Amino acid sequence: MTGKIVPRDYPHPRISEQVDAVSGHYMLTDEKRLAVADGQVLYFTGYAVVDTACCGPGGCGYAVVAGKIIGHAYRRSADGRAVSRVVPIDDPGLQAEIGRRIMATDHVSQVLFDPS
């Protein structure tokens, strides 16, 4: 651990809503939970497509890890999204283990950990 980890509210991103960017678009496609030794981890999978860049097309599948769940969807945000209480994961060893498991299960090319 790199320091004191403080639980935080995590507004769930919108699923299946395309977000346009300068060189393409991205979309989160699923909300998932992964069992770990002392609870569950909340994460989201999606894809990014580069199709409007001058350097050529490309893309990837990815996952974003919100953190270890303390309270799943325990309230709604002002805009109606679910909000979970999570503890960010900053332990490099645990990040590596979770990343390997998500890559093996969801066949994504990268796993990102939302910073605390």
Written description of the protein model:
There is one protein chain. The chain is mainly beta and 116 residues long. The chain has one domain (9-113). Helices cover 13% and strands 53% of the residues. The protein has 1 helix and 7 strands. The chain has one helix at 92-106; strands at 8-11, 19-21, 24-36, 39-50, 58-76, 82-87, 110-113. Strands 1, 2, 3, 4, 5, 6 and 7 form a 7-stranded mixed sheet that branches. Strand 5 (58-76) and strand 6 form a beta hairpin. The longest helix has 15 residues, at 92-106. The protein is globular, with a radius of gyration of 15 Å. The two termini are 12 Å apart.
By DSSP (H or I, 4+ residues per run), the number of helices equals 1
- How big a fraction of the residues is strand? over 45%
Low-confidence stretches: none
Mean pLDDT: 92
Number of strands: 7
Shape: globular
Distance between the termini: 12 Å
Biggest sheet record: 7 strands, mixed
Secondary structure layout:
Elements: E1 8-11, E2 19-21, E3 24-36, E4 39-50, E5 58-76, E6 82-87, H1 92-106, E7 110-113
Parallel strand pairs: 5-7
Antiparallel strand pairs: 1-6, 2-3, 3-4, 4-5, 5-6
Keywords:
single chain, 116 residues, mainly beta, 7-stranded mixed beta sheet, 1 helix, 13% helix, globular
Give a summary of the structure in a few sentences.
This protein is mainly beta.
